[in-house]
Design a protein that fits this description.
By secondary structure, the protein is an all-alpha fold. It has one domain: HPT domain (Four Helix Bundle (Hemerythrin (Met), subunit A), Up-down Bundle). Helices cover about 75% and strands about 0% of the residues. It contains 7 helices and no strands. Helix 1 packs antiparallel against helix 7, helix 3 packs antiparallel against helix 7 and helix 4 packs antiparallel against helix 5. The longest helix is centred in the last third of the chain and has 33 residues.
């Protein structure tokens, strides 16, 4: 029985490693490895939910900032676009993405910020470097992080079952 559990743990660890490689791949540019590894190293046995909590906070904050940006750039609004406010929100999102290691999100924030400086509503809303691309990037990262934290929890549960 012990050997089966060990193999299962090895398989789970291999799956988590594959997820990490997907995120660190230069083509995907989801996460910066050094930054995300630092975050992972902060988790201890005393705080097994630490990474999951940090991930949830980042995703929730990013979602709130995206909603704010979507409201600022809503088509058909009678209000003129407040580009200064949009740049401020992008600055916050870029900063939290940088701290988290979310390189792809950080890059999209910078691209959208450039469109805001040019005060081009069409480019801000759709196309390369737009809010639509930023939303897509954040959604991809959130989905990845959900899979990653679920895999980590599965490994923790398998380890607990193996040691009991």
């Amino acid at each position: 029985m012990g050997k089966e559990t060990k193999k299962t743990l090895d398989e789970l660890e291999a799956e988590r490693l594959a997820l990490e490689q997907e995120a660190y791949d230069d083509k995907n540019r989801m996460l910066k490895q050094s930054q995300f590894q630092e975050l992972l190293e902060l988790q201890t046995d005393e705080e097994p939910e630490f990474v999951e909590e940090i991930v949830a906070m980042f995703v929730d904050d990013a979602e709130a900032m995206l909603v704010e940006l979507e409201e600022l750039f809503a088509e058909g609004s009678d209000e003129p676009i407040d580009y200064a406010k949009a740049r401020g929100v992008l600055h916050k999102l870029k900063g939290s993405s940088s701290t988290f290691g979310a390189d792809g999100v950080q890059q999209k924030c910078e691209e959208l910020r450039e469109h805001c400086i040019g005060e081009d509503p069409a480019k801000c809303r759709t196309g390369k470097g737009s809010l639509a691309e930023l939303r897509e990037r954040v959604d991809e990262l959130a989905a990845f992080l959900a899979r990653y934290t679920a895999k980590t929890k599965e490994i923790q549960e398998a380890k607990a079952a193996a040691s009991s």
